[in-house]
Amino acid sequence: MLYTTRLLERIVSDRLGKSAADIIVSLLNNPGSNTEDLSRNTGLAYNVIRQLMLRLMQHGMIVFDDPRYIVVTPNIYFHLFVPNVMNRLNSDRDDAINELERMRWSELNRISSRVFQMILDKGRMTVADVLEELRKLEGTVPDLESLSMDLERLTQQAFANLSTKGFIVRAETVDKGLFRIYKSKKETLGRKSTAPTKRVAVNLAEMDETEEGETSTTRIDPTVLFTVATDSLMRCMKLDIITSMVADLFFAGPQYRDLSPSLVRAILEAPGQSLTLDGLCDSLFGKTVMELQSTVDTTGSRKSEAEKTKDMSDLQKLRQMIKFMINWADFSVIQTEHGSALHEGTQLTINMADLWEHARGRAFDQFIRLGYGREAVRVWRFVREKKQTELKQMADACLLPAKEVSARAHALMNDGLMKMQSVPRTTDHAPGRSLYIYSIDEELALECLLERAAESMLHLLVRVESEMARLRELTVEGSADIAAAKKSVAAIHRASTRVSLALFMLDVTEPKV
Amino acid sequence: MAPKIVLLPEEKMVLEIILQGGSNGKRKTETLREMRRRTKEVTKSSLENVLDKLKNEKLIKEVTAQTARNDKVLMGFDFKPSKELTGSAWYSDGVLDLDFVHQLFDIVAEYLSSASRYCTEKTILDVLQQSGVLPADIRDNVGDEEVAQLMNAMRLDGVVTVKEQDEGRFYSLVVDAQQHGGRELASLLETPCYHCPVRMRCSMLQVEDVCPQRCEYFNGLLAGANR
Q1: Across the interface, do A499 and B187 touch by the CB < 8 Å criterion?
Q2: Sign (positive/negative) of CA torsion A333, A338, A344, A347?
Q3: Global ipTM
Q4: Of A129-138, A302-311, A442-451, B91-100, which gets the smallest average pLDDT?
Q5: How many CB atoms are closer than 10 A to CB B32?
Q6: Edge-to-edge strand ranges of the sheet holding A124-125
Q7: What's the domain range around B39?
Q8: Which compartments is it annotated to reside in (chain B) (predicted)?
């Protein structure tokens, strides 16, 4: 996993510095290291390691596996949490931030997205920290000037709203006592720490919980740490992919085209990705099930025939779509408590895990189609279904000549996406009398593709850097080629953003808060 | 009355070996191996002579197998080659007519796009037979099995979806049959690195002549921006 390692090193180096990247590489090569090991492997002084480890833990890039960390034990072993490193590529994407701005929060939009970006950059911040940063920016950023009188109140509300929507969560502080170093083995064995741990106790159970959907007016304790809920961020990115996939798969007809993405989006945006049928109707049509079925409209006056017909048709269409998605052949896209019975209070939950898996499979198939040809997709799908097969079976099932099948299979094998094993029938291992079994190891294929994606991403990042350096030189010289150089930088940057989406699709692990 | 065919013992042995293969036949190499097992006095050229005589006497015939590579398969003259040997009705002389198969795909896809419900294999078979595209020599050989093979290939292509129920298999056209979606991984193919012929020599340290900083394959990406 050479390129994946280099890419992780690069991501951390760009954001947190070369020394932090050295720690990351050391943890990748030696998972489960303590501070002494890290100091020895990286050659960094202990106090530098301590500072960097705290920063990396702030960002959730490093985790440790001792559940009783309040008791200082001699050896706490740290592990790298790769998804939270890789997701730093994705958290710089504009669409994740735009998702916030899409919400109907009026003047809170600007503050909320700015607060979110700050917490993302720093890892963990309190309300007081954010307010301090915002006040520093007041004189320089135009959109904050008009809000300066209400900055504290708006910051509080931004925190409350971000927390309610699940974009940020309360975080525990990092225990600085984790990094005590022990001089001799004698001291480490069975001794409790005598030094007081400098830790701010956060008893989450005592904090008031904000009710769902309500803007909290309770003042948030300015010393409580918050961090970005990375799964919410990733959910934003998955939202667009999944909604367009559902629309493509099920509802391409014109009568469904507008409704299906809204349906999926409405459920996915609900807390816990679960919504009642009543809530869904309200979200899509502005009316509950009862109101849609009623002959009287919301103001109390009788509905016209056209309105009644439209409401009944909308409700029927919605029920049909939901039933279709519940009973889909491959898996239930929408899950309910009571099978396909649909009442007003029926809780509808999107089967996110299977949908995402399906989206990844579809992206993989499309990748094979575009990269290796239409025939290669047939071969790929057949071998994936059968687990192990030979050439004749592939040719029969895919309705392709054996030569064509062999060529496609070998192209996939060359890129590590397929495997072949030869089973000799005779003792002389003659190729003409050996059986060749083709198979696909999906995990290995995913790893190979991830490695290639990391390689492409790394090269793009290096090229962006080189083009930026060229642009700076041209700017200093005052050359006429500046416009072209700017376009080149933008093109490479766009390509790297698209590849970061590919990396996101290929990542099989779930991010951790 | 036709003259009686007189065969030498060696020729009778070869005929017996070939007839043992039944409708699957026997390859020339297998026949030679079997002959050598029985009698050490056989050579390739003597076997060729025997086979020529048997073919002339219309006692055996040669059939091109679907995956026999360069070997022809020999079998009794009156035997009908099995489907495993020659392939289904979509194969002629052991060769798959790809253009013909794609034509069938188009006919089925067109029918399914106009049908408002799921279709069975029998319905699709009727459609193919009524379309007039099936040649006379294979029309009788095309049955449910051949249609199932055709539909399976279309399913693997992502063009149709199948529902298996107790009554049988039901097919319908996939809504996004053009497959416009699912292009999230396609960005890897747009970057020059994925199919780069000199990928193994690429070094970011700029010590080699191949490096991302000066790579000419990136020029295509940049040229697109500056057009």
Answers
A1: yes
A2: negative
A3: 0.77
A4: B91-100
A5: 20
A6: A124-125, A226-228, A168-170
A7: 9-82
A8: Nucleus
